[in-house]
Write a structure and sequence with these properties.
The protein is 58% helix and 10% strand. By secondary structure, the chain is mostly helical. A hairpin with an 8-residue loop joins strand 1 and strand 2 (24-28). The termini are far apart.
Length: 99
């Protein structure tokens, strides 16, 4: 198990009482988890490479700057759709989309 092989662990999900309805607790398959942990122990170079690539992906796609740009773009899209909505629908109950 090395190279480009796909490694996975079967997971079932358990519901539990919490303040967040629908929140689930992951329960990994112990046999799969043991196999993967042995693979990690026996293949430190592969695991290190995977960690470096994963960190790079996170930094590039989920940095504060990147998320900020995504949020601004989404807010702009929402504002444009609200302005377009004002053009075609009459305002009801004094609700306005003007800022």
């Amino acid at each position: 198990m090395s190279g480009n092989a796909i490694h996975h662990c079967s997971i079932s999900y358990l519901e539990f009482d919490s303040n967040w309805p629908g929140h689930l607790w992951a329960k990994p398959n112990i046999t799969d988890l043991r196999r993967l942990m042995r693979h990690v122990q026996r293949n430190p170079h592969e695991v290190r490479h995977k960690g470096i690539e994963s960190r790079k992906f996170i930094v590039e796609n989920f940095s504060l700057e990147h998320i900020g740009h995504r949020l601004v773009s989404e807010f702009d899209r929402i504002l444009r759709s609200m302005k377009d909505l004002n053009k075609v629908l009459p305002l009801e109950r004094g609700i306005t989309t003007e800022l």
